[in-house]
Amino acid sequence: MSDSPAGRLQALFEGHRLTPTQRRIAHCMVRRAADAPFLSSVELAELAGVSQPSVTRFAVALGFDGYPALRRHLREVAPPERPAAADEDAGHNAYQQAVLAEIENLRHLAGLLADPAPVERAGRLLAGSRPLLVLGLRAASSQARGFAYFAAKVHPDVRLLDEGGSMLTDRIDAAVRAGATALLCFALPRHPREVVEALEYARTAGLRVVTVAESAFAPVAAHSDLLIPAAVGTGLAFDTACAPMLLGRVLLEAMADELPDAQARLEQFDAKAAERGLFVE
Length: 281
What we know:
Low-confidence stretches: none
Number of helices: 12
Distance between the termini: 43 Å
Strand content: 5-15%
Structural class: alpha/beta
Shape: globular
Number of strands: 5
Mean pLDDT: 89
Largest sheet: 5 strands, parallel
């Protein structure tokens, strides 16, 4: 990923303290990495849903004299011509464009996974935590619930946190007392304040936090020990999250690889399911 346009953009943005609006611009540019060097400040502002002056302030925050200087820099490190494929979506309807955007998000994730080290590290952290906490509120609750459902088949103690409120910190405390060392968080836009506060609390309690979020610039990044990004689709009225879901399954695989009795647990479940006639053949 470091040699890709998206990877170079992300490297450019890392290490800078960005405001929420600036993180939104950065995330937009990473998602549109091939087009970014050719976008005007007005076009970028429209794509990111911010004001044109915000784009100018963003460029200055990165150390450039203004947006034209940032764009010149991007053109120096990007392919000299806008890829022809960028204009091919024009003939598709809105539904097709949403699907094609998700396909592109999955390609982006595949490129990220070319370096398996972060996922393998996450797998070790999750496998070693007894119990293992899985957090996801509001839009991310289905991602957390899906992960917890399958993780419970190979991990001896998985505790799902998919409801906010004052009980959330109580449940984190109880898990820490029981021996928990890690928490997996699924964080998707729009980010609930409770999630940020829960992660901050979890780290003060001694937990290592692994996060799946739509971008390395998401608000939860500052409260995560390891964040692995997976972009969401924004072409429909409600965001789509195919890449975060797939990344969750990849993390399950990495965790299972670190659990020596994972296969035995799966075989035991299959045997009991057959005895009970649990599934229709």
